[in-house]
Structure formats: C-alpha cells, structure tokens
Amino acid sequence: MRRISGLTNVVQVNEDTLEDTLLFVGILSGRGYRHRRLAVREAWANQCQVPGVSVCRFMLSEDEVTPQVSKEVEQHGDIVLVREKTNYKSILLKTFFVLEYAIKHYDVRFILKTDDDAYVHVEALVHQLRLLCMSPDCRNERLYMGRMCTESEVLLQPGHKWNNIVFYNHTGLKTYPNYMMGGGYILSGDVAKMLLDMNSKMRLKFTPIEDATLGFWLMSMDLRHVDHPK
After folding, report:
1. H-type helices in 20-121, by residue range?
2. DSSP characters for 68-79?
3. In this structure, how many other beta carbons lie within 10 angstroms of the beta carbon of residue 185?
4. pLDDT in single tens digits along all 230 residues of the chain
5. Is the dihedral of CA 39, 42, 43, 44 positive or negative?
6. H/E run at residue 166
7. Alpha-carbon span 56 to 23, nearest angstrom
8. Which CATH number goes with the domain that contains 70?
9. In-domain check, residue 169
C-alpha cells in the first residue's frame, strides 16, 4: 500500500535509480467512487500501465480508506494514499501530491492530473506529447497544457460552492489568471519539480479552487501554454 505525506521538505531524488516513464497519470478519486475506478480501469487505466511509457495511479486520502477500499488496494495495486484529510475544498492537496508522488517515484517527463469521471486516450496523448517535445528526450519542456479558462471571475458570495475569498484576500484580484481547467491538465516534469522546490522553500499559497490556484502558482513562469480543447 503506497502512502505519501503532505507538504514535505525539499524533494531530493536520484534520477538514476527511478523508473523511467514519459507520462504519469494521477487520477483523483474518493471513498464512494469504487464503481468509477472499476469503470476507469476497464475503459483505459489498465491499458495505461506500459513500462517506460505511461503509468496510472488513483489518489485517495487515508481517511477515505474502508475495508472495501483496502481490498481494492490489495487487488489492483494502483491506489496511492495521501496522509491528509481531504474534502472538496482541499482537492488542491491531492493534486499537489500527484506531482510529488510522480517526481519522487519516476523519472517522469509529463504529469497528467485528472479525475475518476474522465476518459483519457492514453496512447493518443502519448503520441501528441512526443510531437510537442522540443528536445529529443522530452526533458525540460516547460509545458502547461489543458483546456484554458480565461478571465474567470473570483466568486465571493458566502456559501457558494466556488467561493474563494481566500484567494481574493491574498491577491486582491477579482479575476483569476489564465488557467487550465481541472478535469485534466498536464505539467512537464521540470515544472512540477520547480513547484515542489518553491513549496519547500517558501510555501505556496493553497486556496480552495484547485485549477485556478495552480494557474496562479504558474503565472510568473515562462512556460509553453498549450490550449487543448479536449
């Protein structure tokens, strides 16, 4: 059973000892969604496990573990447990752990964060990523790819599902910087490492809206933004 702890210190890895993979797919899931995980495995995640090319893992928090989830962990071996209590407003924690786990366990070129209600054509995505690579080994690609959301309002109504008063109080902004929508987006490994390093040195600001916050973290970086409508 794999576990990772949250907001760790500097992530130090020896790339010579890590398993090489082009794409790591982190799939956010939860206690009551076993049926979704089974469907995702059957539809595409089992075919995602290709050594040297792609690997998929579901991300659950430890407080979501039930006897049924424990059996699922033992049966499939594709669930990673996050040592944090997680709810809708802390999805960003699980997303951060996707990046941390991928960097700690793989010599990874690209990381896809997605959800357990998504369908990913992994083979086609791998092909597209290789076409986008600027270097022969797909390293240091400075890539941020997904379906871009622009000029999105920061909602401040009390009790609203998307309320993000935390972001407004921290930035004074009433509109989010451009970001990739949370159903599925990709960071290249070098960008993920930079975020982990930044967090270890000065702590990134975590706010309730996961995808918009990630865009905020990345806004000052000189990245290749690829708007992928699908």
Report:
1. 34-40, 46-48, 67-76, 91-105
2. HHHHHHHHH--E
3. 23
4. 455 444 444 445 556 689 999 999 999 999 899 999 999 999 999 999 999 999 999 999 988 999 999 999 999 999 999 877 766 557 899 999 999 999 999 999 999 999 999 999 999 999 999 999 999 999 999 999 999 999 999 999 999 999 999 999 999 999 999 999 999 999 999 999 999 999 999 999 999 999 999 999 999 999 999 998 76
5. positive
6. helix 165-171
7. 9
8. 3.90.550.10
9. no
Domain range enclosing 128: 2-6+16-146+181-227
Domains in the chain: how many in total?
1
Name beta bridge partners: 4: 82
Q: Is residue 159 part of a domain?
A: no
One-letter amino acid at 197 equals D
| pTM check: above 0.90 | yes
Residue 164 domain-assigned (yes or no): no
User: How many helices, marked H, and strands, marked E, lie in the chain?
Assistant: 8, 8
- Say if 173 falls within a structural domain: no
